[in-house]
Design a protein that fits this description.
Blueprint: H1 23-26, E1 69-72, E2 78-83, E3 91-97, H2 111-121, H3 130-137, E4 146-150, E5 155-161, H4 166-181, H5 187-204, H6 207-219, H7 234-238, H8 242-252, E6 258-264, H9 268-279, E7 304-308, E8 315-323, H10 331-356, E9 361-371, E10 375-384, H11 388-404, H12 409-428, H13 435-448, H14 455-466, H15 471-481, E11 486-493, H16 500-509, E12 538-543, E13 550-554, E14 559-564, E15 572-578, H17 596-602, H18 610-616, E16 625-628, E17 633-639, H19 644-656, H20 663-674, H21 683-695, H22 707-711, H23 715-727, E18 731-737, H24 744-750, E19 779-783, E20 790-797, H25 805-829, E21 837-841, E22 852-859, H26 864-880, H27 885-902, H28 906-912, H29 920-927, H30 929-934, H31 938-948, E23 955-961, H32 966-977
Parallel strand pairs: 2-6, 7-11, 14-18, 19-23
Antiparallel strand pairs: 1-2, 3-5, 3-6, 4-5, 8-10, 8-11, 9-10, 12-13, 13-14, 15-17, 15-18, 16-17, 20-22, 20-23, 21-22
Helix pairs in contact: 2-5, 3-27, 4-9, 10-11, 10-14, 10-15, 12-14, 17-20, 19-24, 25-26, 25-27, 25-31, 26-31
InterPro entries: Metalloenz_LuxS/M16, MPP/UQCRC_Complex, Pept_M16_N, Pept_M16_Zn_BS, Peptidase_M16_C
GO molecular function: metal ion binding; metalloendopeptidase activity
Protein name: Peptidase M16
Length: 990
């Protein structure tokens, strides 16, 4: 299948009035973002010896995306370049090397990934770690703008440069090329980065990784894919030395295995010239190695395997495994791939329908994919309810029916409508596609041997392909993707099953009972929705100072913030904020906030359940998403002008005529209970579940429910909690997008303006947020995972609200500086952690409370004391000494660039302007962000550090393996350091 760009939230945003500082950027001519369907300048005459060769399309009849320019250097380096102005001033660079973990020998396992880490440390021409600082000065954020990824089949280096100039683009190309061609691979560098990779391996270890590794080994027996995880092994990484890693680099890092992709706000001819300048003289070292044999599925390997893993939920993986075949990406190949996708969608619709109705499984899905140029596999993933045998039988029955009986044309059309609606959406949003996404799509296409085409080409191809999707054709495709020479099954279970692998094999060998429970067609239209009321009247309309937006207030008290703009042609974003969100619940009161995300939406509207709503909105751009904010509940959607009227009816109907189906609540309860034992399986799981509750002094709004609370959930309790919250409290509607062709005031009046006036919610005492009590010795929580895994964190309370927006911005810079120092000492120098994190949280929904600065990391227990020592040193130094001008600039610059890029899109402004119709401070704070960040000084950083990083208010907590104490961890650290440390005091435990 040829790739077309995916949707994005970033766009050229002509939103702010000329008085704003960002106007010059945001009012760039629309043509700067017009990237699709126009020919880029050829690099043939400007790139010297490079030739403009359409190497991606050799043998293919896929319509070529003419916005790309392709070339091949004499040494074999291939490239693809194109102009793109989204976001303005950014250039995205990708360097793809055709080498991954499947290219390693047994002794080299993990070398491709280790080499990726070493490459980003620097090259033979720049000091270790200096490239990171240089790119920071260019506004690059490490980890998002600069990153790398190793997969079984490729290693990709990523760099997104904001606010480019000829000088920093040239310098960046020079640095990146030097890293790839001549990385600094010294024994010291290998030792340091091996520690980081070992930390990554340790932090990812646990039951899920063991299950994943064992499942891959079983399903892909006979192939490298079964035992070549990119992370490697402790043994192979421990044996890595500079000479062996260098040998791996020299063998596989060759110009003929490199593809350089550049997309951005510049001249493609200049991009091609820079590629030739920095890659043109690259010469391979030694003979070209033979391509590894990835192997084929072994039909003689065992069929069934039961994996016993304590405290894990029962789960099944049923795989139909076929050998991978290399295919040229043609229109016929694309037709086959779309038909395969349709066949999967038909089965998944039926599987989900059975789960919604209360079947033998909680979740079941099928997916057919081509994995790592190794296998063509169709995988069914099943989470049973109770006994696994009926669940396996039921899923096999649905698959058997798909292979026996053709689908109806109506069923086919329903799924095809969804695909076509998505492709049309992509086409309409093509001018807003960010360069980074286009670059990533190109790299992905190269990796899997496919092409790219324009969004229009994709729409045109699918329309012609759709006509061939007849019931008989779909039956043949279903038979192809659900049949295989090798079928294997894996059962994950917390306790051994009677009969072991033999019982699983017998269940698979039993004849599949055809389950013909196809989704019945439902006649539904929006006229069936209960009447909302007479259209409301507008009480006032005013322009919001500083913004191209208007505030509309209706007689019933509903307010709306509307920005009618062409930022995203053909798209309208909706966000309905109602009630008071987290503030509707007292800090110490039981609540069911945790149930809303799934069950509230799935419980239906008026006469319709979830199935009816799915069919009603089929092929249309109508959605409904739910979220909880501090000061409001939110219903959101991404729609288009032609669908907006019905979209708004659906959202308003959820508030006016909610339905209370019981099945989604029951399914949610069972889902929570099924996964409950995973809550303390790893340090990460413990943090994900408990951290917000701990930081807020065990505030019930952020404390996860215990098992008894989950078991006590009933549909009646669910309704009693949510019904008054849907019916009460203020409503604010945000409408941002392309509305020139519709009367949005009329749509608002007939939907939210027509609602009856809403009663205010009774005060719940939830206006303030506490912070964890100060401790002098870290508290301790426990996990049931690996003995070598731990986590540590420390935090200080700050503040919150809208009264001090400049301090909020200053704390973001302070957190970035703290994070940079922690990264350098804990990861880059000592290899003790893969990803230390420092985060400043400053909520606007709670005045003068709720904020904190959090420092945390996953670690080995022996490094707990080291973490606290480093964090203490950094905090004390930030209090005692002003930061240097360079350090301030290196950390504030990337934040400003992130804001500048995000501010070109509607999503950014909708987020910042939540609540602006009721509090003018919201818009003022949104408009001042860039200026506030630019105004942060070294004195501000030191002032905020003195104000907040005080030991007297500090809270700390460590997560240790069950049975270990802080004293044990300290002793392990002392032993590892070859010295002695005093035992830690007894700590409070959780």
């Amino acid at each position: 299948m040829s790739y077309s760009p995916a949707s994005t939230t970033l766009s050229l945003f002509r939103f702010l009035l000329p008085a704003c500082a960002a106007t010059a950027l945001l009012l760039a001519p629309p043509a700067a973002a017009q990237t699709g369907g126009t020919s880029a300048p050829s690099a043939k005459t400007t790139a010297g010896t490079a030739k403009a060769d359409d190497w991606l399309y050799v043998g293919s009849d896929i319509p070529r995306d003419t916005a790309w320019t392709f070339g091949v250097l004499p040494n074999g380096v291939r490239y693809a370049v194109r102009n793109n102005g989204v976001p303005p001033g950014q250039v995205s660079i990708r360097v793809r090397m055709d080498v991954g973990s499947l290219f390693e020998t047994e002794k080299e396992r993990g070398f491709a990934h280790l080499l990726e880490h070493l490459t980003f440390r620097g090259s033979e021409h720049i000091p270790d770690g200096e490239a990171k600082r240089i790119w920071q000065r260019f506004g690059v954020t490490f980890g998002s703008d600069s990153n790398a990824q190793t997969t079984p089949t490729q290693t990709v280096y990523q760099l997104d440069l904001p606010s480019i100039t000829p000088a920093n683009l040239d310098e960046s190309m020079k640095l990146l090329a030097g890293m790839v061609r001549e990385p600094r691979i010294s024994d010291a560098a290998v030792t340091a980065e091996r520690g980081v990779v070992m930390s990554e391996l340790r932090e990812s270890d646990g039951p899920q990784k063991r299950i994943s590794d064992a499942t891959s080994a079983h399903l892909f027996a006979g192939q490298l894919l079964g035992d070549r995880s990119p992370i490697g092994t402790v043994e192979s990484l421990g044996a890595a030395r500079a000479d062996t890693v260098t040998a791996f680099h020299d063998r596989w890092y060759r110009p003929d295995r490199a593809v350089v992709v550049i997309v951005g706000d510049g001249d493609p001819a200049e991009f091609a010239r820079l590629i030739e300048k920095y890659y043109g003289d690259w010469r391979a070292s030694g003979p070209n190695p033979a391509q590894p044999d990835f192997g084929k599925p072994n039909p003689k390997a065992p069929v069934a395997r039961a994996i016993v893993e304590a405290n894990q939920p029962v789960a099944l993986s049923l795989a139909m495994v076929r050998p991978w075949k290399k295919r040229i990406d043609t229109v016929e190949n694309t037709r086959r791939l779309y038909m395969e996708f349709l066949a999967q969608a038909l089965v998944n619709r039926r599987l989900e329908n059975r789960a919604r109705a209360g079947g033998s499984y909680l979740v079941a899905t099928v997916e057919q994919e081509y994995v790592s140029r190794s296998v063509d596999v169709t995988m069914a993933q099943i989470v049973p309810l109770g006994d696994w045998k009926p669940a396996l039988a039921d899923v096999r029955g649905v698959i058997a029916d798909a292979m026996k009986t053709p689908p109806s044309q109506a069923d086919i059309d329903r799924e095809a409508n969804e695909i076509e609606a998505f492709l049309r959406k992509e086409l309409e949003n093509a001018r807003n596609e960010p360069g980074a996404r286009l670059a990533d799509d190109m790299v992905r296409a190269v990796d899997i041997g496919e092409t790219v085409t324009s969004p229009q080409g994709q729409v045109d191809m699918f329309r012609s392909i759709r006509a061939a999707a007849t019931p008989q054709a779909m039956l043949e495709i279903s038979r192809a993707i659900f049949s295989a020479p090798v079928t294997r099954v894996v059962l994950t279970t917390p306790t051994a099953i009677d009969g072991g692998d033999g019982a699983l094999l017998a269940a698979l060998a039993a004849p599949a009972l055809v389950r013909d429970d196809r989704l019945a067609a439902i006649k539904a239209d929006f006229s069936q929705l209960p009447a909302i009321g007479a259209p409301g009247t507008i009480a006032s309309t005013t322009l919001v100072p500083g913004l191209r937006a208007e505030r509309i207030e209706f007689a019933n008290g509903v307010t709306a913030l509307v920005s009618n703009n062409k930022v995203e042609p053909g798209k309208v974003r909706v966000n309905v904020r109602f009630g008071t969100g987290n503030r509707s619940v007292a800090a110490d009161a039981p609540n069911l906030l945790w149930t809303g995300d799934y069950a509230l939406i799935a419980s239906g509207i008026g006469p319709w359940g979830q199935n009816e709503i799915d069919q009603l909105t089929n092929g249309r751009q109508i959605q409904m998403n739910f979220a909880i904010d501090d000061d409001a509940f939110e219903l959101s959607a991404e729609s288009k002008p032609a669908d907006l009227a019905d979209q708004m009816k659906l959202l308003a109907g959820k508030l006016a005529s909610p339905r209370w189906d019981t099945a989604p609540v029951d399914r949610l309860r069972v889902g929570f209970l099924t996964g409950y034992d995973l809550n303390d399986a790893t340090p990460n799981a413990v943090l994900d579940r408990n951290l917000r509750g701990w930081l807020s002094g065990n505030d019930a709004r952020w404390s996860a429910p215990d098992k008894a609370e989950i078991e006590a959930l009933t549909p009646a309790k669910f309704r009693a909690f949510w019904e008054p919250r849907l019916a009460s409290g203020p409503i604010e509607v945000q409408l941002f997008g392309d509305m020139a062709s519709i009367d949005y005031r009329k749509i608002l009046a007939e939907t939210f303006g027509a609602l009856s006036p809403r009663a205010p919610l009774a005060p719940a005492g939830g206006q303030k947020v506490a912070f964890a009590k100060h401790v002098t010795v870290p508290e301790v929580a426990y996990h049931r995972g690996e003995q070598g895994q731990a986590a540590a964190m420390t935090a200080w309370p700050t503040s919150g609200g809208l009264a001090s927006p400049r301090d909020a911005r200053g704390l973001e810079v302070l957190a970035a500086i703290f994070n940079d120092r922690l990264f350098d000492r804990l990861r880059a120098e000592q290899g003790a952690s893969y990803g230390p994190v420092v985060d400043s949280h400053w909520p606007t929904g709670f005045d003068n409370s709720g904020g904190y600065l959090l420092v945390g990391s996953l670690l080995a227990p022996k490094d707990i004391d080291r973490f606290y020592g480093i964090a203490k040193d950094i905090a004390a130094d930030l209090v005692a000494n002003p930061v240097s001008a360079d350090e301030l600039a290196r950390n504030a610059g990337p934040i400003r660039e992130q804001v500048a890029r995000a501010s070109t899109g509607n999503v950014y402004w909708m987020f910042l302007l939540e609540g602006a119709t009721r509090d003018p401070r919201v818009a003022a704070a949104a408009l001042s962000i860039q200026d506030d960040i630019a105004a942060v000084t070294a004195a501000d950083i030191q002032r905020l550090a003195k104000l907040y990083l005080t030991p007297a208010r500090q809270w700390s907590l460590a997560i240790l393996p069950k049975g270990m104490t802080l004293a044990d961890a300290s002793a392990a650290g002392a032993a590892a350091a070859g010295g002695s440390q005093a035992s830690a005091p007894v700590a409070a435990s959780r």
